[in-house]
Amino acid sequence: MSLRSFDPWDLKQAAAALDDPVSAKKLEPTIDPSLTYLGCELTFSERRYLFYHLAKNPDHYRDLMPGERPIDDDFFDPFGFGALFDRQEEKYKRSCMFCNDDFDSRDALFEHLEESGHAVDKGTRRRAPGYKRPEVCKKRDRSEHPHRKYRLVLQEQRRRQELQRRAAELKRKEELQKQQEEEEEQLLKLKREEEVKRRQEEFIKHQQQQKRQRELDEAEAEAKQRQEAQQRQAKRIKTNAGFVCRVCAGSFDTRSQLFSHIKKAKHRAPRD
After folding, report:
1. 49 and 116, same structural domain?
2. What are the start and end residues of every segment in region (Disordered) (predicted)?
3. Which of 45, 94, 100, 175 could form an S-S bond across to 30 if both were Cys, CB 3.0 to 4.6 Å?
4. Is the pLDDT of residue 174 over 90?
5. Is 52 exposed, middle or buried (0-12, 13-18, 19+ CB in 10 A)?
6. Which distant-in-sequence residues (6+ apart) come within 8 Å of 52 by Cβ?
7. 0.90 exceeded by pTM
């Protein structure tokens, strides 16, 4: 037998699937022993398909879970969910099919089956003393336990809070990175401005140096031209009038007369 258990209140979730034609197409047998029941030996991949089948075939309920007792006959009416949903405060007991002991949880029922050897093999319908609940069923049962659901809600809240914290931290990091990028861009802009200013100053300084060099070259050229002109003039005077005094422009026939005049009159001219 299958020791798979479920809450009758879950039928409320499957009520919407009764009028859904898509769900009927999906009701195909699959390999999942945890969702197998003895009435028709079909298996389904999800619990809602199981409840859909139970709602259509209510006589399969007792064959599916002979150890579990329904609350009353309203459960077997697939469309009479109103009276069933009004009694949500009542507990749905889990019972052993051999000793008829009731248990408030599946964990307690399975512990009793394992300790007392009251488990039944699904294929032979005989007792299986060495039965142990599979780990898959343990995980599934714990996930469906009310306290587990409450813990899942808390975990979901913590997960959402963690996601919100991470989102806020990511947003803060993005803002910080954006601010750093703006600061770096501002620094680069200032550096570029300083570089442009420095190059402009160097260009102006270079132009001034070139201007001064041109002025010096022009002055040197003028001095050289003036000296050459004086030399040409002195040569011309010497050729035309013999030896001429450069101070008083007196002419003499010989060099001895010129030097005697310079010595007496002290007309010695400075050298260029």
Report:
1. yes
2. 118-148, 203-235
3. 45
4. yes
5. buried
6. 14, 17, 18, 23, 24, 27
7. no
Residue 158 pLDDT class (50, 70, 90 cuts):
confident
DSSP state of 268: P
Cα 156 to Cα 248: distance, rounded to the nearest angstrom: 121
Asked whether residue 261 is assigned to any structural domain, the reply reads: yes
Q: Which residues contact 106 (CB under 8 A, 6 or more apart)?
A: 5, 94, 141, 144, 145
CA angle 94, 147, 4 (to 5 degrees): 35
* Least confident span in 105-109, 210-214, 236-240, 260-264: 236-240
**How far is the CA of 251 from the CAs of 49, 240, 259, in angstroms?**
143, 10, 11
- Residue 205 is predicted with a pLDDT of 92
Q: By residue range, what is the domain housing residue 88?
A: 8-141
**134 vs 68: CA distance, rounded Å:** 20
Give residue 268's pLDDT. Answer: 77
Q: Which of 78, 109, 141 is the last residue of a domain?
A: 141
